[in-house]
Amino acid sequence: MQQAHEEKRGETRERIIQAAKDVFAEHGFAGARVDEIARRAEVNKAALYYHIGDKQALYAAVLHSVIGTNARKLAADMEALSDPEEKFRSYFTTLAEAIGRNPQMPRIMMRELASGGVNLPDIFFQDLDMALKIVTEMIEDGVKRGVFIDTIPIGVHLMVISALVFLQVCGPIFLGHPKAPRSLKKIDKAFLPLAAQELERFILRALKR
Fold first, then answer.
1. Is 0.85 surpassed by the pTM of this model?
2. % of the chain residues with pLDDT over 70
3. What is the C-alpha to C-alpha distance for residues 5 and 163, in angstroms, rounded to an integer?
4. Alpha-carbon gap, residue 208 to 40, rounded angstroms
């Protein structure tokens, strides 16, 4: 009985977070309304506040559900690998797949960056710190092994994230806009994953000695 109750709570919480992702992506933090999130999640506001909390708590839960989960996966993946190049490929793939599974996140982050990051919660920076430690260890290990050049880890991480976010947000707009030139409209929908693969090769090539 208790297990069934916990599973139902987990399902409700997940439904609320998914609805919040959509609303925050569409309207940003300032424009998002808790009433709309509750409506899309098919719960009342009291249930929403019970399961997660107010709008700030919702925003933190949305960011943590993606960034925190991704950071933990990165940590687990790195432990299973030893070759620096394999680690980088795994790191890049994990980020690309996380963005692909959560297409709302690039729009949420671009809205947040445009506002100066004023709504970013503490958990965001804790998750970012975890990811940066993983990237730093990966690059430092590669430098010690003579595989990577000595570079700035946060620069690498921001380069990867910003490029993947730009592709996810701008790619569909440029390729699908009614005013786009024919040369863009002829590009196959497989462009985005192919572009991500090229990006991985470019950055890895730049990192290697």
1. yes
2. 93
3. 42
4. 47
